[in-house]
Specification:
Layout (H helix, E strand, L loop, with lengths): L4 H10 L3 H7 L32 H4 L15 H13 L1 H9 L30 H10 L21 H18 L16 E2 L23 E5 L7 E5 L10 E5 L3 E4 L15 H5 L1 H5 L2 E2 L2 E2 L2 E2 L7 E2 L2 H23 L2 H9 L5 H18 L1 H7 L4 H6 L9 H23 L5 H9 L4 H18 L3 H8 L9 H4 L4 H11 E5 L6 E6 L8 E2 L5 E6 L2 E6 L8 E4 L8 H12 L6 H5 L11 H6 L15 E2 L8 E2 L7 H8 L1 E5 L6 E5 H22 L13 H12 L7 H13 L10 H15 L25 H17 L3 H18 L5 H31 L1 H4 L9 H15 L5 H18 L5 H36 L2 H9 L6 H19 L7 H7 L1
Parallel strand pairs: 12-15
Antiparallel strand pairs: 1-2, 2-3, 3-15, 4-14, 5-11, 6-7, 8-9, 10-11, 13-14, 16-17, 18-19
Helix pairs in contact: 1-2, 4-17, 6-10, 10-12, 10-17, 12-17, 15-16, 15-17, 25-28, 25-29, 26-29, 28-29, 29-30, 30-31, 31-33, 31-34, 31-35, 31-36, 31-37, 34-35, 36-37
The protein binds S-adenosylmethionine.
């Protein structure tokens, strides 16, 4: 059942507190259904329902909305361009890659092995703020019932004082996080003037309680030494900031859930139901006939996990948003957009929230009080950072935007001209194709918040000069706001699935952090709250940095991305050591300063190597011979590669490289298609490579539209789904993979060394360019293998992934901790697999089936007992040995009964022998690999990394422990030894 804003409004109108109001709302909310999975023992693999058919749950419930009377849908190109607005917002997009949990997107499937649910995203989101907000709300006055039609004046709130209390309270909460209200410059090398963060936009200006600064600020925002770099965040602590230190937490100024995740992620706390239920179950509209999240019945757009969340959002954002969306829906064109999402509304919703939040902030008492105290330098901090908006779009908007959007809005408001005609008319006004995403986003915004023509014009008016004071910085220009969103917007990602689930705008601290390819801080999300932590020692006065992009690329690739998206050239120690320009000399000083370990040998960039094309040589050359193939190619278009081993020379050209890349991409696509029953599936392109796979994954669970084509695609997505859909990849798929791997890396896959005789032709020449693709291929391979339960294939991919990551990241890096975490997950999976195979076999045994296990509580208990009995009966041999013994016994029994003729029996035996052989081989492989993983898991160095990069009692640390315990248990039941480092040392 939907939650009606009316019911809230009505309830609030007749009660004194919202708490009471919430109680009075008799059935506005169904109790969100928790996972219907039984609590699984942690040595068992959670089974997943692969039915993705109902993933469009929110649409199903929309039958009351008439979707037939809208004009024709906008064409696909326009849709694609709007999507590109979302993805081309540089800061927004690349931040997706920064979430360090995105290291192994492919492995995220294994998240169901996690047991520490209390750590899950969303549960603790925003800490206890739900309660504190409810407390605040308890003192609220009665509200005007919702039924009153909103007017233009409602862009401001009818009762600003009311909202300002929430704002004021929110500020108080934020302040209580800080140990001091403003930061002061304490750093000795602070040459330029430190800029304290203004109170309104930076109430947490700000040090963390958990910091080492004993009450003083941990950081300050001030100008960097480079003018072009602008401001940055510097350590203001008197001592070294140690890894794990929480530098700051920052609440979003405003945030929205992405269109794609609206029905699965709570719009207030960002709890993702997929975390609890697994993607496949969450994608269906309901569990046991009940909805998992509940939807606002007013606009039918946003979803919540419970009343508290709905009320909180209603007060802070949704009341006016809801009215706005409903007003917008009064136009058939807009109704089509809102109900069918023919245009992505994420950015438009974020903009609307931003506009309203700004209005509320301005109306709050705290703002009024503090505003008087803000000096000029503080005002600078509040200025809108000018970047991110595509130049072309800016120009287009200046020239035609206002007219076109105006016409667009007027046309469909009058409900006379269908969209197609509007587009035709307006195309004469300018380059509509290029600029329509922006125009449409603004059109949606205006349809929600701006009505009279004169206000629209003000709203659209572009401000060309950077704003220097608070008022104009938060001015009404659409471009100002969009810029703000582009500059300070972050994609909120789900830690576990690595999928972007929302968009939040931050204005206090995180937007002032500059980039480094070898950063000293990372950030993660807890709901919409961003947390910034130290990952290596930071000296007093040193700048705090994060990485805007995925660090796995070559210097040339990284710099290209930074240039394109952020318009600067990075001069961090990594860039200095591995210069993009091959003519520049590498400097190892800066890197050595960061990695102080005297034993640390800066490795040469492994991505710059190449494979010798001499078939009999096969040597893989490091970058000693050629420092930067990519860069040389970029400059000279041609490079001669001389193999350091055999002296063989090969010439490569840009064209050859491009051909290579094309071929590799084709092969990857073929592999994915083959794995999915010959059905085409797009591999989305992304600048952020960490995010690529997450996107592939996300695309597999895309909400299908209602056309028949997408219905036909469903079986394919179902195949990708849960573990129940066990399907061996076809021989062709495997061959596709091996071919792709060979073309990309120049080497056979680790599981096909015998099968692939030699590297052929000049294809194997320059692999450095294909590094990104090889990672993509391996991750896709792993992901697909896990989906299809082909563990041996998965195992080989995980070996390759591990090698790739080891080669790609240097020094202390959180990614290594994440890698260890996933190694542990793989080990868990494999151990569980061995257990599961045995359990299944035992269940199949007639002898065991006859036993009465009716006394046991659950199937799981029965499985366990069967397992124990079997193990007891057969001694301590491995599971596979036990199975073989049983099979042999059964064979003997079969032959002694003289069933069938001798020839049949012989054939059967041969067949069984073959099955047993494959089984033994694969399980032996698994066991060997598992045992090779175990020492890595408890490697003290890894344990330090896991612990420090997330704080002493960090999330990852506790999860890691949990996984190790689970692994130990699984290994114990599978009769495999777990030799920890500790035990090993004791034995020695
Ligand atoms: C989010 S802002 C960071 C704060 C910014 N420095 C300021 O003063 O507002 C991102 C912008 O800062 C600049 N920047 C960040 N890291 C940089 C670096 N390592 N070198 C040069 N400029 C950098 C770039 O102009 C980039 O587009």
């Amino acid at each position: 059942m939907d939650v009606t804003p009316q019911s809230i409004a009505a309830a609030t109108a007749t009660t004194t507190t919202l708490e009471q109001a919430a109680e009075l709302m008799t059935a506005p909310l169904e109790t969100p259904v928790r996972s219907n999975n039984r609590a699984k023992r942690n040595y068992r693999i959670k089974s997943r329902d692969s039915n993705l058919e109902d993933e469009d749950g929110n649409r199903d419930g929309d039958q009351d909305i008439d979707q037939t009377d809208g004009p024709a849908q906008l064409n696909q190109q326009e849709q694609a361009s709007l999507d590109s607005l979302t993805s081309s917002s540089p800061y927004i997009q690349s931040q997706k890659a920064q979430n360090i949990a995105e290291v192994y997107p492919g492995l995220a499937r294994l998240s169901f092995l996690d047991q520490d649910q209390d750590q899950g995203l969303g549960k603790g989101s925003d800490g206890g703020s739900v309660n504190s907000f409810t407390n605040v709300l308890e003192t609220k006055k009665q509200r005007r019932p919702f039924q009153q039609q909103p007017t233009m004046s409602q862009i401001t709130i009818e009762d600003p004082d009311d909202i300002s209390k929430v704002e004021d309270q929110k500020e108080k909460e934020m302040r209580s996080l800080s140990t001091s209200s403003t930061s002061t410059s304490t750093s000795s090398n602070a040459k330029s003037k430190a800029v304290a963060v203004p109170p309104v936009t930076s109430p947490a200006a700000m040090s963390s309680k958990s910091g080492s600064g004993s009450g003083s600020s941990l950081f300050e925002i001030r100008e960097t030494e480079l003018e072009a770099k602008g401001r940055g965040i510097f350590s203001a602590a008197n001592e070294i900031l140690k890894p794990g230190t929480l530098v700051f937490k920052e609440l979003g100024y405003c945030q929205v859930v992405d269109d794609e995740s609206l029905s699965q992620v709570c719009s207030t706390c960002f709890k993702d139901v997929r975390d609890e239920l697994g993607e496949d179950e969450a994608s269906s509209a309901s569990v046991n006939g009940q909805k998992k999240l509940v939807r606002c019945a007013g606009c039918k757009v946003v979803w919540y996990c419970n009343k508290a969340c709905q009320i909180k959002d209603w007060k802070l954002h949704h009341q006016l948003e809801c009215q706005g969306i409903q007003r917008s829906m009064s136009s058939p064109v807009m109704k089509e957009i809102w109900t069918k999402r023919t245009i992505n509304t994420t950015i438009a919703r974020a903009l609307c929230r931003l506009i309203r939040r700004r209005e509320r902030v301005k109306a709050s008492k705290a703002y009024k009080v503090e505003h008087g105290k803000i000096d000029n330098s503080q005002k600078q901090v509040n200025e809108v950072y000018f970047s991110g908006l595509d130049q072309k779009e800016e120009e287009w908007l200046d020239e035609y935007g206002s007219t076109w959007i105006e016409q667009y809005l007027r046309t469909y408001e009058q409900e006379k001209t269908p969209v197609a005609a509007t587009a035709t008319n307006s195309s004469s006004l300018g380059t509509l194709e290029e600029s329509s995403p922006l125009a449409k986003t603004l059109a949606i915004v205006m349809s929600c918040v701006v009505t009279p023509t004169e206000d629209r014009n003000v709203f659209l008016k572009s401000v060309r000069e950077p704003c220097v004071n608070v008022e104009s910085a938060s001015g009404d220009s659409a471009l100002d706001l969009l810029r703000k969103l582009n500059s300070y917007g972050f994609a909120i990602t789900n830690m576990e699935t690595t999928t972007a689930v929302g968009l939040a705008l931050y204005v206090q601290c995180i937007p002032f952090m500059n980039h480094s390819c070898i950063p000293n801080c990372v950030y993660t999300f807890r709901g919409s709250r961003v947390e910034c932590r130290v990952i290596r020692d930071i000296q007093p006065g040193e700048e705090l940095t994060i990485s805007y992009i995925d660090q796995i690329g070559t210097t040339q690739e990284r710099q290209k991305q930074l240039k394109e998206q952020y318009r600067f050239t990075c001069d961090c120690p990594l860039c200095k050591y591995y210069p993009a320009n091959p003519l520049a000399q590498p400097e190892d000083g800066p890197l050595r300063q960061i990695i102080a370990d005297p034993l640390f040998e800066p490795r040469l960039d492994p991505k710059q190597g190449f494979v010798c094309s001499n078939l009999s040589c096969k040597a893989i050359n490091g970058p000693k011979s050629i420092l930067a193939i990519d860069s040389q190619l970029a400059i000279y278009n041609k490079v001669e590669l001389k193999c350091s081993s055999c002296g063989h020379c090969t010439e490569i050209t840009q064209e050859l490289v491009q051909e290579n890349e094309k071929e590799a991409q084709k092969l990857i696509a073929e592999f994915v298609r083959e794995m999915n029953g010959g059905v085409e599936r797009q591999i989305p392109k992304s600048n952020s490579r960490n995010f690529e796979l997450a996107k592939v994954k996300a695309s597999s669970s895309e909400t299908p539209s209602e056309d028949t084509n997408s219905m036909e695609r469903k079986p394919a997505t179902a195949v990708i789904g849960g573990l129940k859909t066990v399907r061996e990849p076809s021989a062709r798929a495997l061959k596709n993979f091996q071919d792709a791997f060979k073309v990309i890396t120049g080497r056979p896959t680790s599981d096909s060394e015998k099968a692939v005789p030699a590297i052929d032709s000049a294809q194997s020449i320059c692999r450095s360019h294909l590094h990104r693709l090889s990672r993509q291929l391996i991750q896709i391979g792993f992901d697909e293998a896990v989906s299809h339960k082909n563990w041996v294939f998965a195992l080989h991919r995980s070996i390759e992934l591990e090698r790739l990551l080891n080669e790609s990241y240097i020094g202390h890096h959180p990614l290594k901790a994440i890698q260890a975490y996933y190694t542990c997950k793989i080990a868990n999976l494999l151990a569980n697999l061995l257990l599961e195979e045995s359990t299944v076999e035992i269940e199949d045994s007639e002898e065991e089936k006859d036993k009465d296990y009716g006394m046991l509580d659950s199937d799981d208990e029965a499985d366990l007992k069967l397992l124990r009995d079997a193990m007891r009966k057969n001694g301590t041999g491995s599971m596979q040995e036990q199975l073989l013994r049983r099979k042999r016994k059964e064979n003997e029994e079969g032959s002694s009964t003289g069933e069938g003729n001798a020839e049949d029996r012989r054939k059967k035996r041969v067949q069984e022998k073959e099955v047993s052989r494959t089984q033994i081989e694969s399980s032996q492989q698994l066991q060997r690999y598992l045992q090779s993983l175990v020492p890595k898991i408890e490697d003290p160095k890894i344990l330090v990394q896991v612990r420090t990069c997330w704080g002493k009692d960090g999330k990852l640390g506790s999860r890691y422990r949990c996984l190790i315990d689970s692994l130990k248990q699984a290994l114990h039941y599978a009769a495999l030894p777990f030799v920890s480092q500790e035990q090993k040392q004791k034995t020695i």
